[in-house]
Write a structure and sequence with these properties.
Layout (H helix, E strand, L loop, with lengths): L7 H13 L6 H12 L3 E2 H11 L5 H14 L3 E3 L7 E3 L7 E5 L5 E4 L25 E4 L2 H4 L9
Parallel strand pairs: 4-6
Antiparallel strand pairs: 1-3, 2-3, 4-5
Helix pairs in contact: 1-2, 2-3, 3-4
Amino acid sequence: MALLEQPVSDVTELRQSIRAAGLKVTEQRLAVLGALQQNPHTSAEEIFARVGAVLRGSSPQAIYGILAAFTAAGLTRRFDPAGSPALFERRVGDNHHHLVCVSCGAIEDVDCVVGEAPCLTPSDTAGFTIFAAEVTFNGMCPRCQGQATPEPPA
């Protein structure tokens, strides 16, 4: 669904989110945030493909810049699964984790492992103040489990 096809209330919410983060509202920023709203766990390249269909003249560099600004402002979260390009999502502020299928690449959110953020306590903080922990659970999704015998990667 293109940005212009989104309900007016959704576009209004996107505009308000961008303004509340202290950023200027532009058509490219609206398109990027709209693409992430509709497609969580999306790479910059995928976002560029979606935004390019709506806004001619968009560039990959512009998309990377917008995603960096959004991540710095707390509008998006960057997730770096092993063996995959960085992915971005709108779900922020709750320190959730991810389930990743090693067969098909499907990704699902999973709430905090135990307790409040940062969910895990390191054995030694080395003087750091810990505020978040990233955990990625690798396995096989139900669909892939039915198609093959799971063999964990070496």
